[in-house]
Amino acid sequence: MAATKPDLYKILGVGKNASDEEIKKAYRKLARRYHPDANQGDARAEERFKEVSAAYDVLSDPDKRRAYDRGTGPFAAGGPAGGGFDPNAFGGSFSDILSNLFGGGGGGGRASGGAGQRATRPRTQRGRDLETEVSLSFEEAIEGTQASLAVPTSTTCETCRGSGARPGTAPTICPVCQGRGVESQGQGVFSISKPCSRCGGSGSIIENPCPTCGGSGARRTIRRLKVNIPAGVRDGSRVRIAGKGEAGLNGGEPGDLFVVTRVSASPIFRQVGDRVEVEVPLTVPEALRGATVEVPTLDGSKKLRVAPGTRHGTVQRLRGEGAPKLGGHGRGDIHYRFTIELPRDLTAAQRKAVDELAKTMDGNPRARLFRGRTEARA
């Protein structure tokens, strides 16, 4: 008896009309909650993490989501895996049932002859690219680091070696599309092709599914790996790790892993493009008379000369002292923006000194505003 099709929308907690962004947002929230690194030793949390990842894997892919909604291809009862959602074919585990939804059922190439012939050379299929996020401190992003990741993925089934068929058997040519993977529907002189409703586009049927993977050719798992994050990444950078995505089917090459960096803010430095900005407060005397002040750099500190009469908002640059540029092409600059610190409360001595200063500072800087208006009217 076929098992009830799992409600992937319910697993992610979204409606059936949810947008791609809503699905992604829900997945990220649940993935953080049930991530194995945050639930050490919790088998149920790890199982839930696999379920959430499997549901997202379907609903984030337009073709898979469409097939799931329609109940066609690998999502159809009695479909290409020979028995639809049969829990006995997957050991009864819900995540095992979900694992049957990935990998395309072991794909088959076109071969001569009619239905029932063995597809002796099934099509290879490249593994899907994966994407995950890693949180970094500002310092780790600047200097580069090695990050530990736990990535939900699929690996080639060790029993059938990715074919999806029980050992000693092989996929057979789909009797509907004759191994082409598509059906043609004629409209006058035109013909419209669509993925085969019987095999889901693979071109082959697995009549004797592998008892380990249920015909998918792959098993869902969590891969733990360490990746090198290059120096100079920013918030939102995508680091490509070649060959660390999902395993390919039928000997296909694996996909790639893309690591999106999330960089926390620094209390001192702010990265803007290739440059780093720092606000440097000055006292009124330092701004008026000029001074030599110590400023922070990414590697320590340096002395910076402040010119007499420096105004609030003045920017001074140190070349080549900023963050490393991705690809090893030198470093950016640091921009120091001076701000004038004014005391809120003055002591009697300070007030007297300000009064004496005011007597010696001639001129009204606002006079030009009224002079310009008078000249405009003349």
Number of beta-strand segments: 15
CATH superfamily of the largest domain: DnaJ domain
Known CATH architecture of the largest domain: Orthogonal Bundle
Can you give the mean pLDDT? 79
Poorly predicted residue ranges: 78-121
- Residues in helices, as a percent range: 10-25%
Strand content: 15-25%
Shape: elongated
Spatial order of the strands in the main sheet? 10-11-15-14
CATH topology (level 3) name of the largest domain: Helix Hairpins
Secondary structure tally, helices = 9
What would you report as the Rg, rounded to the nearest angstrom?
A: 32 Å
Q: Tell me about the largest β-sheet.
A: 4 strands, mixed
The count of domains is 2
Structural class category: alpha+beta
Through-space gap between termini: 97 Å
CATH structural class of the largest domain: Mainly Alpha
Order of helices and strands: HHHHHEHEEEEEEEEEEHEEEEHH
